[in-house]
Specification:
18 helices, 3 domains, mainly alpha
Length: 446
C-alpha cells in the first residue's frame, strides 16, 4: 500500500529515517507538508523562511511536494484517504504542541492507518538521557557528559529510487519570502562544509566575535531540518580538525540544543514559566512602552545592545553572544520578565526554536537551568569592548556611530562629537540597574 510521508521539521531527503521507513518494501510515497495556522502565521519571519525551505524541498522532489493548508487533524487523514495509505510516516515530535497535535492526528487516522514515528530532529531523542536514578538532568555539564556517553547513530543512507506519488491536489505556497540567503538541503550542506574547512579549527576562539561572523549559521538549517545534527556530528568526527578545541566547542553547542529540547520534554510547562520555582516571587516591572520599544528598535543608547537588536530586525538573526547581552539588558537592566523578550525574538528570528530560545532566555534571566545564575549581569559596554574590540560590529549596524573609530564606537559619551549624528543617550544607568536587579534577587530568596 502507498505511504504518506508527512514532513515537519525534517525538510530534506538525506539522513531522514522517516523517509526510509515510508519507502520500505518499495511502497509508493506521497510527500505532504501541512501549513498549520496555529504554527505558520503569514508574514512572520519564521513562516517566510519556512516557505523558502519548502520551495527547495519541492524542487528536490521534482515538484511533487503536496502542500495543504489547515488543521493537520483534518488534513492528514483526508490525504491519507485520498491515496489509500497504509501508514503515515513522520519524524517524532518533541515540543508540547507537536506532541498534542500528533496524538490528535493519530486518533483521527483510526486503527487502520497507523501514525509511525521514526527518528527525531535530534542526535539523541529527548527523554533518553537520564541520571542513574531515572530522573532528568537540569544542569548542562552533567547532561553533556551523559549525552556523549549515550552516543548516537550514524547518519542514515539516502534511499535510492523512491517512487514518489505525483498529481495530487496542492494548495500551493504563498510567495511572501524576502530572500535572505539560499535555503534548502543543498544550500545547508554547502554552507556547512565551507564552515568545516574554514571555521571549525578556530571556532573556540572566534565563536564569540560578532564582528568576525565566524559561526556556522547552522541554527537556521537545523530549525527547518534541512540538515540533521547527526550529519554535523559525523562530519566533525571525520574531519582533519576533529581534535581541535574548535571541534570540541562546536559539539558542545550541538549538545546545548539537545539539552534544552530535553528539558522541555520533561518540563513542558516551563516553556513560558520559570523553571526555577524558588524564584517565583522575584519582582519585575511591566514593560514600559517607551523603554521596551527602545530595546526592540535598538535605541537604548548602549551600542552593543542596539547593534544586536537592529541586526535582528534586519536579518531575522542575531549572533549568540549578542543574544545573551540583549536578553540580559531587558531582564536585568529594564527588569522585564523574560517571556516578553522571548516572544519578541520568536516574532523576528528565522531560526526561532521554542526550546532553545525560551530556555536560553531563562538561562540569562537566572530562572532556568544554570546552577547559580541570577547574579550574572552582563555589562553591555564591557561585553562590546571584549567581543567587538575594534567596533566593527557596532558600526555595521549603527550608522550614527560610524564617525567614531575603533573601540570609541562603544562609548560615544567619552568622545567629542559622539552624539553628532543622532545616536540616543543611555536610557538607564547600568550600575544602578544592576544593583536593583541583585537587590530584587536577594529579596526573592529571603
Amino acid at each position: 500500500m502507498p505511504s504518506l510521508l508527512w514532513f515537519r521539521r525534517d525538510l530534506r531527503t538525506g539522513d531522514n529515517p522517516a523517509l526510509i521507513a515510508a519507502a520500505a518494501e518499495g511502497a509508493d510515497v506521497a510527500p505532504l507538508f501541512v501549513l498549520d495556522p496555529k504554527l505558520h502565521r503569514e508574514g512572520a519571519a519564521r513562516t517566510d523562511r519556512l516557505l523558502a525551505s519548502l520551495q527547495a524541498l519541492d524542487h528536490d522532489l521534482g515538484g511533487r511536494l503536496i502542500v495543504r493548508h489547515g488543521d493537520p487533524e483534518n488534513v492528514v487523514p483526508r490525504v491519507a484517504k485520498e491515496i489509500e495509505a497504509g501508514a503515515v510516516h513522520v519524524s517524532a515530535e518533541t515540543t508540547p504542541y507537536g506532541r498534542r497535535r500528533d496524538a490528535s492526528v493519530d486518533e483521527a487516522l483510526g486503527d487502520d492507518v497507523p501514525l509511525i514515528a521514526t527518528g527525531s530532529p535530534y542526535a539523541v531523542t529527548p527523554g533518553r538521557v537520564l541520571k542513574d536514578d531515572g530522573t532528568p538532568y537540569r544542569v548542562f555539564t552533567p547532561f553533556s557528559r551523559a549525552w556523549k556517553g549515550h552516543g548516537w547513530r550514524e547518519p542514515a543512507e539516502k534511499p535510492k529510487g523512491v517512487s514518489w506519488i505525483d498529481g495530487l491536489e496542492d494548495d500551493g505556497l504563498p510567495s511572501s519570502w524576502a530572500d535572505r540567503g539560499a535555503a534548502g538541503e543543498k544550500a545547508a550542506l554547502k554552507r556547512w562544509r565551507a564552515f568545516l574547512d574554514d571555521g571549525l579549527a578556530t571556532y573556540d576562539d572566534d565563536r564569540d566575535r560578532p564582528d568576525l561572523d565566524r559561526t556556522s549559521r547552522m541554527s537556521v538549517a537545523l530549525k527547518y531540518g534541512e540538515i540533521h545534527p547527526r550529519t554535523l556530528l559525523a562530519e566533525v568526527a571525520a574531519h582533519e580538525d576533529s581534535a581541535t578545541k574548535g571541534a570540541e566547542r562546536f559539539i558542545a553547542e550541538i549538545c546545548w540544543r539537545e539539552f534544552y529540547a530535553d528539558v522541555l520534554w520533561h518540563e513542558p510547562k516551563a516553556l513560558w514559566c520559570d523553571l526555577r520555582k524558588d524564584l517565583a516571587s522575584l519582582s519585575y516591572d511591566d514593560p514600559d512602552p517607551d523603554t521596551f520599544d527602545a530595546w526592540k528598535e535598538g535605541r537604548t543608547g548602549f551600542p552593543f545592545v542596539d547593534a544586536g537588536m537592529r541586526q535582528l530586525r534586519e536579518e531575522g538573526w542575531m549572533h549568540n553572544r549578542v543574544r545573551m547581552v540583549t536578553a540580559s539588558f531587558l531582564t536585568k537592566d529594564l527588569h522585564v520578565w523574560w517571556p516578553h523578550g522571548a516572544r519578541h525574538f520568536l516574532d523576528l528570528l528565522i531560526d526561532g526554536d521554542m526550546a532553545s530560545n525560551n530556555h536560553g532566555w531563562q538561562w540569562v534571566a537566572g530562572t532556568g537551568t544554570d546552577a547559580a545564575p541570577y547574579f550574572r549581569v552582563f555589562n553591555p559596554v564591557t561585553q562590546g569592548l571584549k567581543f567587538d574590540p575594534d567596533g566593527d560590529y557596532v558600526r555595521r549596524w549603527i550608522p550614527e556611530l560610524r564617525h567614531l573609530d575603533g573601540k570609541a564606537a562603544h562609548e560615544p559619551w567619552k568622545h567629542d562629537g559622539g552624539y553628532d549624528h543622532g545616536y540616543p543617550r543611555p536610557i538607564v544607568d547600568h550600575g544602578e540597574a544592576r544593583a536593583e536587579a541583585l537587590a530584587r534577587y536577594e529579596q526573592a530568596r529571603a
